[in-house]
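Before the break, one more example. Copy the sequence into your notebook; we will annotate it together after we see the structure.
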Amino acid sequence: MSEDKYANALRATLTEVRNICPPITHSFIFTKEGKIIAEAEQDTEVSTEITLHSFQNLIEKADTIGGLNTFVVNGNKGMFQISRVNNMYLAISASKKADMTCIQSAARVIVPTILKLLENKLLENIVSTPTTSATSYQNLTTENLTGLFAGETAQVDNAVLKEWSKNLNNTHIDEIEIETPNGKTARCKVKPISEREFQGKGLIRIPEKIYRVLEVEKGEQVKVKPAVPWRER
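Here is what the structure looks like once it is written out:
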């Protein structure tokens, strides 16, 4: 499943929730880093950025006391609620006449269920297919890659990618195979490490979803090699 399809599915979910509960005036899903993942269709003309910065500050302060799960504010003109859903946050604002049962159902049941289904769909894409390679496995140290839509793409040093490409007659490397010491394997997309602080350290930054599949810990050594489809032999 692509990022666009993922976001579209979440957008459709938020839109449907708003159709069920018309008093909802604004709803969107965002990450701790401030990336907006999806908004209800009716909200596309609303400036989410105005409130997002305040929400981020609130979440950062909440981290000092163990994190934020649910935060509700009731005002004279309405209410808003932030709820943690997996590694993301759902923000909902509504008028005073909103049915809180409906809002809580969206925050605690509907959206989390859809997210779980989408995550499972992402994991289905991490399925090994027959490959061959002229390059042997390379030992790299694992580092967790957080943030939404890191879901299917790992990161390694560009120098490693170039070396692999050179050994494979300048074949473009866009997928890799990862093998853990306990024999678990996964195949996923790959791109160069962008953050300078992680470069040149022999790391592989693995998205959280694949981390769970491989059952690895931060700092653990894994074997990595480029995945080249049989048709390219």
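Residues 126-134 have pLDDT under 50 and may be disordered. The chain has five helices and 13 strands. Try to locate both features in your own notes.
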